[in-house]
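Duplicate of #3305? Posting structure anyway:
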């Protein structure tokens, strides 16, 4: 697994949900000590192979983007504890990331 330098947060339109998710992901990454990772947000239509090292997406679009990069699904975009658990599990399972 390659090192994660960029995380892209994806929602259908790339505006509200992905922006909120990206802000919460940044806060969680600080808590995890991973301030080296750049967090961006985008729309489903602007997602492509290699657009980021890790995609963090709302659960409803997971199946539509998982082929582009390693992907984790978030079921509650505003619950930072949930986001923390999902990202911690990803980094624990992928220590080189």
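Output from current build:
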């Amino acid at each position: 697994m390659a090192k994660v330098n960029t995380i892209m947060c994806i929602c259908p339109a790339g505006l509200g949900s992905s922006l909120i998710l990206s802000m919460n992901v940044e806060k969680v990454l600080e808590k995890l000590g991973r301030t080296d990772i750049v967090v961006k947000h985008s729309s489903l239509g602007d997602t492509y192979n290699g657009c980021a090292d890790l995609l963090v997406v709302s659960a409803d679009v997971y199946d539509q983007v998982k082929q582009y990069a390693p992907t984790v699904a978030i079921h509650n975009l505003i619950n930072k504890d949930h986001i923390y658990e999902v990202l911690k599990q990803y980094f624990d399972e992928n220590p080189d990331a």
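Confirmed duplicate; merging threads. The chain is about 35% helix and 20% strand. The chain has a mean pLDDT of 94.
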